[in-house]
Amino acid sequence: MAPWAWTWDLCIALLNGRFARIDGRGSGCFRIAQGSTNLFTDQSEDFSVEIFQRSPLPASCVAPEELKQQSSLHADLLWLDIPAISVLAFELKRCLSRKAADPVMEEEDRNRRMRYETDERRIKGTVVLMKKKNLLNFEERLDRRIFRPPDRKVSLQLISAVNGDTDAKELRGKLGKPAQLEGWNSANTPLMSEYFTFSVTFDWDEEIGVPGAFLINNYDYDEFYLKTLTLEAVPGHGRLHFICNSWTYLPSRTPPALQYYRGEELVNLRGTGTGELEESDRVYDYDLYNDLGNPDNANHLRPILGGSTEFPYPRRGRTGRPLSRKDPRCETRLPFSESLKIYVPRDERFSHFKMSDFAAYALQSIFQFLIPEFEVLFDRTPSELDTFEDLLELFEGGIPIPDNNLLESIREKFPLEMIKELLRSDGERPFKFPLPQVIKEDKSAWADEEFAREMLAGVNPVVICGLKEFPPTSKLDPKLYGNQNSSMTKEHIKDHLDGLTVDEAMENNRLFILDHHEALMPYLRQINTTSTRTYATRTLLFLKRDGTLTPLAIELSFPHDKGDQLGAVSRVQTPAEKGAEGTIWDLAKAYVAVNDSGYHQLVCHWLHTHAVTEPFIIATNRQLSVLHPVYKLLHPHFRDTMNINALGRQTLINAGGILERTVFPGKFAMEISAVMYRDWVFPEQALPADLVKRGMAVEDSKSPHGIRLLIEAYPYAVDGLKIWSAIRTWVEDYCSFYYKNDEVIQEDHELQSWWEEVKNKGHPDKKHESWWPKMQTREELVETCTIIIWITSALHEAVNVGQYPYRGYPLTRPAMSRRLIPKHGTPEYDELEKDPEKAYLKTITVQIQSILGISLIEILSKHSSDEVVLGQRDTSEWTTDMEPLKAFGRFGKRLKAIEQEITEMNKEERYKNRIGPVRMLYTLLQPSTELGLTGKGIPNSVSI
Ligand SMILES: *[C@@H]1O[C@H](CO)[C@@H](O)[C@H](O)[C@H]1NC(C)=O
Ligand SMILES: *[C@@H]1O[C@H](CO)[C@@H](O)[C@H](O)[C@H]1NC(C)=O
Ligand SMILES: CC(=O)N[C@H]1CO[C@H](CO)[C@@H](O)[C@@H]1O
Question: Where is the Lipoxygenase domain (predicted)?
Answer without folding.
Answer: 248-944
